[in-house]
Amino acid sequence: MRNLRDCYWGVEGDAAAVRVARDWVKRLGGKAFPVRAARKILYHAAAFLVCPTIVTLMDESTRLLEKSGVPERISRPMLAAFVAETARNFSELGPRRALTGPVARGDWTTVKRHLAALRRFAPDVVPVYAALVEDMLRLAGRRAPPGNLHGRRSRRQDASGRRGIDEMSVNTRVT
Questions:
Q1: 110 and 70 within one domain
Q2: Strand ranges (DSSP E) for 4-136?
Q3: Residue 31: which domain range?
Q4: Number of H helices, E strands in the chain
Q5: Is pLDDT at 169 greater than 70 in this prediction?
Q6: Would the pLDDT of 171 be above 60?
Q7: Beta strand residue intervals within the chain, DSSP E
Q8: Is residue 103 within 8 Å of residue 137, measured between CB atoms?
Q9: Burial track 96-122 (b if 16+ CB lie within 10 A, e otherwise)
């Protein structure tokens, strides 16, 4: 029951069903809001993109931290603190102002070093990293720097012809 307190509940249906649902949500101490019935699957997809994805990314980060020498007893609470602060910033500041890190700063040297290290120590993470950087670019209102992209077409090229980070050349040596 404690997990239901203060939860947000999407409700849809005819007027009588919505009244009953809102009453139950109120009794549970939650917050009800309307969801379009025809697009309820988008509501579910949105929740999926956040909850299990965060857990999966935290697991990937834990693996990378282990490879860098950080024990799991440290990495798990550390990552939980990072995510809690990030979620708080997202709620209070909005997505663009909550975005931090090398993409938000335009620090392409660090992004290249990340990619080089990932290619060497965790190549399975590179596609995820590249896709997330592309979305961060959109959110930050930035573009990958010109001159660092290969000539081949990106799998995520937008209408303006902007190519994604997965084409960024990485010539940085990792030590």
A1: no
A2: 8-11, 31-34
A3: 1-35
A4: 7, 2
A5: no
A6: no
A7: 8-11, 31-34
A8: yes
A9: eebbeebbbeeebeebbbbbbbbeeee
Note whether 84 and 129 are same-domain residues: no
Co-location of 104 and 173 in the same domain: yes
Distance in angstroms (rounded) separating the CA atoms of residues 61 and 102: 16
Give the number of domains in the chain. Answer: 3
* Beta carbons within 8 Å of 39's beta carbon, 6+ residues apart: none
In a 3-state reduction of DSSP, which class is residue 145? coil
* Coil, strand or helix at 31: strand
* Mean pLDDT, rounded, of the chain: 86
What was the pLDDT predicted at 149?
29
- Residues whose CB is less than 8 angstroms from the CB of residue 1 and which lie 6 or more positions away in sequence, other chains included: 28
Over the stretch 94-138, which tens digit does the pLDDT of each residue have? 999 999 999 999 999 999 999 999 999 999 999 999 999 999 999
E-only strand ranges, 2-44:
8-11, 31-34
CA distance 67 to 63: 6
Is pLDDT of 48 > 90? yes
Tokens at 120, concatenated: 């060497």
| Pair of tokens at residue 132 | 């997330």
175 residue type, one letter: T
* Six token digits for residue 163: 């190519």
pTM of the model: 0.77
